[in-house]
Specification:
alpha/beta; Purple Acid Phosphatase, chain A, domain 2; six-stranded mixed β-sheet; 8 helices; 33% helix; 21% strand; binds manganese (II) ion
Amino acid sequence: MELHAPPHWRCVDFISDLHLHANEPLTFQAWGEYLQRTTADALFILGDLFEIWVGDDVLADPSGASTGFEQQCAQVLRAAADRTNLYIMAGNRDFLMGPALMQACGCTLLEDPCVLEFGSQRWLLTHGDALCLDDKAYMPFRALVRSAQWQRDFLEKPLHERLTLALQMRAQSEARKQGNTVYADVDTVAAQSCLETLRADHMIHGHTHRPARHPLGVQHDRWVLSDWDLSAQPPRAEVLRLSLVPGEHGPAGKARVQRLSPANAIAAKPAD
Ligand SMILES: [Mn+2]
């Protein structure tokens, strides 16, 4: 899947791993404020927007099993999509986001991976979990829950049952993490080969919650997004912004990369 940024786009934002949940009101609030006011021409959410997503039908839930939090999130997305171009990729938490949610919110669902052509460069966008090859326990689970058959079977279950199952899966994943002292990271060889296959210059991903820039050989690199947790001490929230500033920053069409707090992403003009 490839996206070609229209020539008038000057500024593109990336966020990921918000892990939105009704029990994390501070993160929801900061995210909502940022979405309402970002100055970017397009916003890409690269996975794990939601801590849990058990199916788009949660938006029209007649059973009352959901809390209404998802509807609130959908309203924020809808309002943002009215102002800017909004793209969403699924993560390992919210992989069941589907066309109904996108339609309700005016967003575009991205495949993972996907390439964005912006200026003169090609940016490979991915959540990142598929490249954490050392996460041996997760890989078979990922293959299972991403299969069409598993998803069909799961989505046929009543909503309250899906919510219970999702909480169980989450608890199992947390327990697995407790046992692992070393978290898996993106595999360098896999990342490089992915960039080569898709003829991309740079990779942007989330998932690992370890914001950094890793050079990959001489020409390529891997930008890692921060997660958002506004109730952590110190609070975490960050926007990765690409801006095209013709003439000022090297060859024409080469984007400048900035890491901004949500507050600065709101205040700063795209080319400041
Ligand atoms: Mn993730």
